[in-house]
């Protein structure tokens, strides 16, 4: 049995429809039918039961399918390893993330990458807000997924992976916590908690404005080094913080509330890498993250 005929058989076993199988393999339905009939003549028994309405595997066909699937997987893995070696998708890949939802996406993509390219290992590191681009600049990371926009020399911005509506994290007893939504103008009503350290200007201007759209000053609150400090400060009534709406799923705790913004742009999270160019492994990981980010929940 030729490899192409095996591929046709396994595809039909999954689709159980000659037309869909032909479309999937970019061949004609008659080519599918011819290949199956040839296999059945060689084996000496039907592999599929066909009616005008349905296609089903026979017991023998199911047995053949079960026996062939591990072999196909082994062949595909061997091909993937060869492709990975040729493209340089080997060795350790160091990936950073800034939020739990970015971490979820990175971890899913890393698992798929490792399954396809056995020679590639993925090391994942959380980025701290006091030095959000430092690990990438120092060569400690190959790529990271974090807040946009970033317009910094030596760093290239790749595709946006996630676009999240904003919310304001406020003390549970604050007047804003009783509202169904807030406005960017409400940033003048409470101190804004800010990160300590070297935060890029493009990120500061977008995420931590000094003035509201009408020009009212946004008061500054205490500073933090690590994100968990922020929720504690908010719960203590020391200030507020602009977050993604989904932060409520990850960071909710007694003493705080999350109120969605009714205006202002979304918070984008995308891929960053050094401007000397992404490696083949980085490109493969980014492609996977784009695919996974586009999948419907």
Automatic annotation (TrEMBL):
CDD domains: PBP2_LTTR_substrate. Residues 1-58 form the HTH lysR-type domain. Keywords: DNA-binding, Transcription, Transcription regulation. It comes from the Bacteria. Gene3D superfamilies: Periplasmic binding protein-like II, Winged helix-like DNA-binding domain superfamily/Winged helix DNA-binding domain. It holds the Pfam family LysR_substrate. PROSITE patterns: HTH_LYSR. Belongs to the LysR transcriptional regulatory family. This is LysR family transcriptional regulator. It comes from Kitasatospora arboriphila.
